[in-house]
């Protein structure tokens, strides 16, 4: 891809729902928090702007103006990042209900008020373009690239991933009040728009 070319709009890679990997292969995966947020692909053209596309390809940038800080955190080169938007409740846990309230707002004045009443956070967990496509790289290399960017701000973060055993990640997320984990195969490439067992959504059977 030539320098200055706009990266293509890619659909996000999707997980299957299933049980944790068997003990004999669980070390082949990393384990990330299951956020149950609003999936977005963040496009940063390197000119100080940000474009957020929903899982269905809709431009939702105007609904989340506070997330423009991501462009300041990564002023260049061109990048495309994968993550989820969440809204926290009074106890600091992701709230689907509060997120749905925020997602329903479109009028600029309503969105402006919601920045204070229903603030969002962007949890970034993959990188699919950084000056050039990175989808062909294994998960471990993509995570290293993402971690090296040190993207951290009031509304933006890169959550940590757990190594095996899977049960440790499940115990931690259960205690912290999250819905489960996503197991991601360490050697897996990023497959835009595909649902594959390289990513497995593992939900807790019950909440504490």
UniProtKB/TrEMBL annotation:
Coiled coil region boundaries: none
Domain ATP-dependent DNA ligase family profile: 113-203
rRNA-binding keyword on record: no
InterPro entries named in the record: ATP-dep_DNA_ligase (IPR050191), DNA_ligase_ATP-dep_cent (IPR012310)
Top-rank lineage group of the source organism: Bacteria
Keywords, sorted A to Z: Ligase
Protein's name in the database: ATP-dependent DNA ligase family profile domain-containing protein
Origin species: Streptomyces vastus
């Amino acid at each position: 891809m030539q320098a200055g070319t706009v990266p293509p709009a890619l659909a996000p890679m999707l997980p299957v729902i299933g049980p944790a990997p068997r003990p004999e292969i669980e070390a082949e995966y990393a384990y990330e928090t299951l956020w149950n947020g609003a999936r977005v692909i963040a496009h940063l053209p390197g000119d100080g702007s940000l474009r957020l596309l929903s899982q269905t390809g809709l431009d939702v940038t105007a609904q989340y103006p506070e997330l423009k800080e991501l462009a300041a955190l990564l002023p260049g080169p061109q990048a495309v990042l994968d993550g989820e938007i969440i809204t926290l409740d009074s106890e600091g846990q992701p709230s689907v209900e509060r997120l749905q309230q925020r997602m329903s707002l479109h009028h600029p004045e309503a969105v402006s008020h919601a920045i204070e009443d229903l603030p969002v956070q962007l949890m970034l967990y993959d990188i699919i373009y950084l000056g050039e496509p990175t989808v062909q790289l294994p998960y471990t290399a993509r995570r290293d690239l993402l971690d090296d960017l040190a993207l951290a701000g009031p509304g933006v973060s890169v959550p940590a991933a757990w190594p095996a055993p899977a049960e440790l990640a499940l115990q931690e997320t259960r205690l912290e009040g999250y819905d489960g984990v996503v197991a991601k195969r360490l050697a897996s490439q990023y497959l835009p728009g595909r649902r594959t067992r390289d990513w497995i959504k593992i939900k807790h059977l019950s909440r504490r």
